[in-house]
Amino acid sequence: MTPPTAASKSKSAAVPAKDVKPAKKAPSGPDYGARLGRLRELTKTQNLNHILVTNPLDVGYLTGFLGGDSYLMVSPATAVIISDFRYQEELEPVKSLARIHIRTGPIVQAVAEVFTAERVDRCGIQTEYVTIAEQQAIAAALGKGPQNRLVNTKGLVSQMRIIKDEHEVGLIRKAVKIGQEALEAILPRIKVGLTELEVAAMLEAEMKTRGSAKPGFESIVAARANGSFPHYRPQDVKLAANAPLLIDWGATWQGYHGDMTRTFAFGKWPAKIKEIYTIVLDAQMKAADALAPGKSAKEIDAIARDLITAAGFGEEFGHSLGHGLGLNGHEEPRLSHMLPDTVLKAGQVVTVEPGIYLPGVGGVRIEDDYLITETGAKNLCTMPKDLEWATL
Known about the structure:
Layout: H1 32-45, E1 50-53, H2 56-63, E2 71-74, E3 79-83, E4 99-102, H3 107-118, E5 123-126, H4 132-142, E6 150-153, H5 156-161, H6 166-186, H7 196-209, E7 220-223, E8 244-249, E9 252-253, E10 256-257, E11 260-265, H8 271-289, H9 297-310, E12 322-324, E13 331-335, E14 349-352, E15 355-358, E16 362-365, E17 368-372, E18 377-379
Parallel strand pairs: 1-5, 3-4, 5-6
Antiparallel strand pairs: 1-2, 2-3, 7-8, 8-11, 9-10, 12-13, 14-17, 15-16, 17-18
């Protein structure tokens, strides 16, 4: 989000600053009405009349409102956002899509009020996002009513979000661009003796100055042998000469995520790290080259995994090859050997990120983001990854 601009307080202004209000703009970009219509059709297939959307990212996907702490009730002909005073003004542009119910008490009580006003029955509830305690509280607030008033559902909105439209792909491209530019800005300033935390702070500051409201996740900056921890958290560890540095980072843009990883070395590459770098790079590029609609996610994972295993490092590559990107940093589809298989489709955006991790030595991971097209896949990242470029 960009910060608000203060109105002029000049005494000579024709209109007092306190009377100047920013113009309200209707949601732009996606056709949110069409998305709500698709969800209504999906609820019908589940023999439901309504659905209560409680995941804030799903609310954002369906309406454009990403403020959080709000529910969305979708009925056959109407929609209601249940929110509170903090978001009242922010929700003004959404009024063309949904009625706004500003609660004055607990959200479960507001849900009951909306149920009564909308005469809700057979309402789906997102079991993957609502705890048992929350579901019980909502049921208690509703009191006695029609049997099966709340019906457990799963995945109705997430299956809509798997395929990205042109607007969403553009937002992901922008997030990737911000992330790349941020790393490129700090590479000349990364020196031996800086700490992992200092590098992470520099990187995240550069992403923010380029418009990323927040990192997609806690940036991974792993110096020396710390690269062997796949989800390492930066510490007060200094970068060293002739040692590796793994950076896994991602910017966000209007809620959408980018996610990349590069591994570097200062000066001379340790022999083992150099060896596994060439293996990981080969695995990453071969798996990415095979991406295409109709391909099996497990098949793509196996391309990289088999190559790394044949090189003698199969046990040192224990995580999945990749994951979907969108409003979540990790979402469907998953390129995994551990999960049920899925078939890739045009419009999906996935990461490809093989790695080899050697305790006490270090690790190498290389990651780019790919859009599945009608004929193959396009890399949304343009940053180099050859060994020479990665030598600092």
